[in-house]
Amino acid sequence: MIINVPAAPFPYAFDPEHSALVVIDMQRDFVECGGFGEALGNDVTRLQAIVPTVAALIALFRAKGLPILHTRESHLPDLSDCPPAKRNRGVANLRIGDTGAMGRLLVRGEPGNSIIAECAPMPGEMVIDKPGKGMFYATESDSMLRSRGISQLIFAGVTTEVCVQTSMREANDRGYECLLITDATESYFEQFKAAAIDMITAQSGIVGWATPFRELEASVT
Ligand code: TIU
Prior knowledge:
The protein is of the alpha/beta class. 33% of the residues lie in helices and 21% in strands.
């Protein structure tokens, strides 16, 4: 059954049977003090405001029995999947692989690299470790989703204009219909979040659709 969800730039034809929720990088490294996000000079507390909404969105998908894919931005301990071009950016004292307050920054298996408790994956949910900003680069995301018959992706997570937007663009090019939940995503920069949503939805939804959580929730309950 198709459900028309009010959205920008026009209603999103939500098909629950072919949909998955994608929760991008809700990791301690980005959301908590002492992680990669703070090492880049960002105020990570901005991201904490969306946690209840992301958790509610996850709960909604679980209640409906719909699939969820969680991503983590992470690198192997030997950093063989982290190109120097990514590691050697800027003048940060703490770079990817260096040891911070929550272990080695952005390294798989370190305490800071885990997903925050409020958004933690449940057994049976898809979890993808990605070395890039996008969820499809060097991952099994596409085959995992296609093998489940999924053609629509509902997006949440951080940060809006970096890993979320990159993932939405990758998904759009692969033929997925993408809906961003605007109050379940956040950026370290207020103006970049707004601009990313505008870029995604402009030109008749050149990348996809956007709507607040309450519109999706009201449409499916
Ligand atoms: N720096 C920043 O805004 N984001 C990232 O580095 N990764 C993600 O967005 N996950």
